[in-house]
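Appendix B: complex inputs.
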Amino acid sequence: MEKQELPDEIAFNVIQGRVEAEDEGVDEGLEGQPAVTELVHQALEQGLNPKSIVLEGLTKAMDEVGEKFEKGEYLIPDMLASAECVGAAMDILTPHLLKAGVESKGKFVIATVAGDLHDIGKNIVAIMLKGAGYEIIDLGADVPSGRIIDAVKEHQAPFLGLSALLTTTMRVMGDVIDKLKDEGMRDKVKVFIGGAPTSPEFADQIGANAHCADAFQAIDILKTMAI
Amino acid sequence: MNESFREGVLVKPYERLNQEQIEQLNSASLQILADPGVWCYNERAADLFKAHGASVSEEPQTQGVCWRVSFPPGLVTEAVAQAPSRIVMGARNPQNKLVLDAQVPRVYFGSGSEANVWIETQMREFVSVEEPQLKRQIPSFTEVRGNSTLLCRAAKLCERLDHLDFFIRPLNIQDPDVTSDNHDVNKFFASLNNITKHVQAGLTSLDRLGDVVRMAEIIAGGPEELRANPIISFIACVFKSPLQMVDETVEKVFGIVDVGLPVVISSSPQGGSSAPIQEAGMVAQINAEILVGITLTQLIKPGSPVLYGSVPVRARLDDLHDLYGCPEFNQYNIDCVQMARFYDVPSYSSAGVGDAKIPGMQAIYEKLFTHLYIALSGAQYIHYAFGLLDRTNSFCPLQAVLDNEQIGKIKHCLRAPKVDGSAVDDTLKMVKKVMASPYRLYARHARKAMHAGDISDPYRFEAKGLEDKVLENALVYMNQLEAEPAPHLDQKTVDRIFDEIPGLLPGLRQSAGLGS
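Resulting structure:
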């Protein structure tokens, strides 16, 4: 493939939601053809500027995916597939971008709080945020509050996302925020909460910065909090 | 040449009766037809039955002449065996054709059936007495007498209802200029000029059958073309239960069979008044009545296309009106579907009727109860399914839109399972891939099925908050559908029909614009 065609081809495959060559797309008959992972490697080998791969391939594609979602043409699985593509591309591109002096949109520590094993919502948010250009430090589910604090400290993350699905575990989010205060870190990190039983009122009550009903709202709010 | 047909839904039939019970009911019906036999008020039919070996004697009556006909079992069995097991119901748009095969449980849903009242819906805003700032949209309903303009509107809407497979006019036309003479030509034209799906109706007057057929021939492209693609068919309710053959309807059957178009032989006894309320008794009697009707068609012309039309209902025991949305209705009807399959004749059945007089929870309950069960039975041709309220007295277009959504979900639910070697291979690959991924999430692997239409959508009329907005949302959707253009016939065809067919109302003269 010609060098100049690669960003468009990467964009096409992001829209098709194809991470690797063996993946199927939305259109028929794409299995076996190079997908985002193979094409990004090829682009780097051919000397394409990593920043232009991000801008002309990934960002452009995600804009189009967003439009398709707005129109109802795409649903959540499509968005996730495309976001996973961007995430996979960013894993390959990040060292090259750092070398070129380009940084991510920011580090985002994310976890489901202690006592709660539910991680689907948290995972969706993580995939989407990674696809939106944030560096995700995913601590998993049932994470003790102390470990969350340690991770924020270690990575000097400006953003923390906490998830809970149970009314019995949502209060742990408040404990995490209290610990951030105890450690004198509260002003250095913006705390986002989410999960079925949570609400904007609850976020206010425990002193979180924002309540996010879904991953899209998280992205929108993050845009207003540029670091 | 490959023929295309509407897909309907191919189901794995739910059967109430075992083979022994089917044979017992068949035997009971044949015994009823032997003794006491039927009371036939049509001389031609009595003569025809006699000529084929039935025992016929004149029955003393206070009014008119009647013949008591006793059928030897062989006569009925042999005649019914000549009825075709596969019938094609044609359509203006050939892609809307239906194929009804008695041994293939492919289910189609359609409308019905000649309600007198049209129910219009309007949303009105109400304010709480206690909290004046609290406002709610509440539907209000108005009854309008059916007329030809509203029938056109019903047909046009039904064209847009994607799960409606055939059209039986749901509304009676009561315009001042409509008489018993021009009723048939106007109801068929109003339907055919506004929908490209199969059109079926009863015949008001045998005198205008020729004109109705001529109209259909003009639309289909000629007499042979109409027989190859029968865009219209008829319903004949031959029996006044119990066991009395109606003179006028029998005469219509002679006429319809003669023109070579499909006919439904329908019977609609009421369990508890005109038929036994017990399952065995109801099914034995209605089956006997339908068998005689089918026998008549096959004695007139062997191989005539005919549907086994069963509409058994139960009486309410508080006022003896029909009771549709009840367990017995399902039991009677599912049994009849099995009997039709036993005789190898396509089944015309019924679902979607209830006592509810307006759209709402009662209507949904009563309709879902029968929509689902009768579809499960594998009846090929289910009428009454769209828009009927107040038993069969009212047609409400909003309800038809709600029924369309419900029937769509039922069709989806009853689809054949996609489980085979290839699906298992795909599953194994998918599980390995997801378990090797960081988030172990199957969401993106739903895409192919989602875009192929294999995954159903949420309820179209759902509300997001603590409120019920089903009717409000359905009304918005109905208005969108009604804003679509009507699929009128081209001007040349319409002109020719108006030139050749007398009695058409001038107000119905609408045709497709240039380029449409």
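The mean pLDDT of chain B is 95.
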